[in-house]
């Protein structure tokens, strides 16, 4: 079965609700689906997704924000148990930390940049708000979706708040992989390259070569998102070859946030997966992990 293994709802920085996301997955012709919101999953969220489209094979997912050598790394988790104690504690701690830093940044944006944003601007129909990503989206709207201005104000307010990425996220790559495994899931490195999207480097994302992939394998990494919008065709092939070389699960994801003026139009309906057995590959990988 085909599956787009990377997409978001308004539980983090997506536009679509959980129900609308599941309806859209079906409309795009996928028989299987997942939701991989940033640093958030809950049992009620999973239940709502499964109720929305009961005929679809649903994979509970999450995208954990972690760090390596001071750079940002996203780790996707599939088949995770949303009621796992360790994962729930991590989500709650991340939420609290994000809110504290974001509140300081909001004060600075108003005082030093003349941009008034309140917590009410973050409210969506979801059960959760991912504060720093919602701040980027709201700030973009206030500044006419000018990326240069957005990052100047965003990074500037962060620096004036005396904060850095690690104030949002204290989780390392190794810890993220362990959190996912402890929650009975499999861990996949998200968008490891960014030749097709140089802004990834501006946002502090780490570029991954083979030596870094080998390091993550020693932590227990199960797979790589080899095919995604931030990759060039050359990178797609490079990361797929690494999957074959090290017996890693290759996944494909549109990283679809919905039709959004800042994050871009929906890609899920245009994203063409190469693996018609993508879902089955994920299931087999999960079964190997469970019986190790």
List the helices and strands and how they pair.
Elements: H1 18-27, E1 32-35, H2 43-52, E2 57-68, E3 71-78, H3 85-113, H4 131-142, H5 147-160, H6 165-168, H7 173-182, E4 186-189, H8 199-202, H9 210-219, E5 223-227, H10 233-246, E6 249-252, H11 278-290
Give structural notes:
The protein has a 6-stranded mixed sheet. The relative contact order is 0.17. It has 292 residues and is of the alpha/beta class. It is built from 11 helices and 6 strands. The protein has helices spanning 18-27, 43-52, 85-113, 131-142, 147-160, 165-168, 173-182, 199-202, 210-219, 233-246, 278-290; strands at 32-35, 57-68, 71-78, 186-189, 223-227, 249-252. The protein is 45% helix and 13% strand.
CA-atom Rg in angstroms: 18 Å
Shape: globular
Instruction: Please tally the helical runs, counting DSSP H or I stretches of 4 or more residues.
Output: 11
Could you estimate the helical fraction of the residues in percent? Answer: 40-55%
The strands making up the biggest β-sheet line up spatially as 1-2-3-4-5-6
Mean pLDDT: 92
**Main sheet?**
6 strands, mixed
The parts where pLDDT drops under 50 for at least 5 residues are: none
- Please write the string of helix (H) and strand (E) elements: HEHEEHHHHHEHHEHEH
Q: Strand-residue fraction?
A: 5-15%
Quaternary organization: single chain
**Care to count the β-strands?**
6
Structural class: alpha/beta
Terminus-to-terminus distance: 25 Å
Features:
alpha/beta; single chain; 13% strand
